[in-house]
Amino acid sequence: MTTDAARPRYSGDGWSLVAHEAGGLSVYTLRGEFDFAASAKLAELLPAAPGAERIVVDMAEVEYCDSSCLQILLRLSRRLRAAGGRFAVVSAAPAVTRPIALLRLGDVLPVHPAVEAVEASWSAA
């Protein structure tokens, strides 16, 4: 088990990302505002060539997410699916859930209220 102090942490102007493993999942916890200025760094920090991994992006504490960041998540999700992996977003924040719903991206960016809900849905499938 990784301690909080040992987890990789990254931050920029108004945002942060913490990566850790949890029960066979790679979890990336994002906090703050993710706009065009943060999107290039987000693309660097998320896996560029994922294999058949199970990745969860926890955005419960994201206050703003623009289309450039959603595009990064879409690309990651598509690469994962092509490699036999799985992808999900965790959030109840309207800043995240509303654009995903409005753009009808729920099939590609499935949203769950908690990491445990992701695990349950993947176990049931």
What does it look like?
The chain has 125 residues and is α/β, with parallel strands linked by helices. It has one domain (4-124): Transcription Regulator spoIIAA, CATH 3.30.750.24. The protein is 36% helix and 33% strand. It has 4 helices and 6 strands; from the N terminus they run E-E-E-H-E-H-E-H-E-H. The protein has helices spanning 36-45, 67-82, 94-102, 115-124, and strands spanning 9-12, 15-22, 25-34, 54-65, 86-90, 111-112. A 6-stranded mixed sheet has the order 1-2-3-4-5-6, sandwiched between helices. The chain is globular and about 40 Å long. The two termini are 27 Å apart. 25% of the residues are buried.
Summarize this structure as a short list of keywords or feature phrases:
125 residues, alpha/beta, 36% helix, Transcription Regulator spoIIAA
Helical/strand content category? alpha/beta
Task: Give the total of beta strands.
Answer: 6
Distance between the termini: 27 Å
Radius of gyration: 13 Å
Overall 3D form: globular
Architecture per CATH nomenclature, i.e. the level-2 architecture: 2-Layer Sandwich
Strand content: 25-35%
Q: Helix tally?
A: 4
Summarize the helix and strand pattern as letters: EEEHEHEHEH
The low-confidence parts are none
CATH topology title: Transcription Regulator spoIIAA
The CATH class is Alpha Beta
The total domain count is: 1
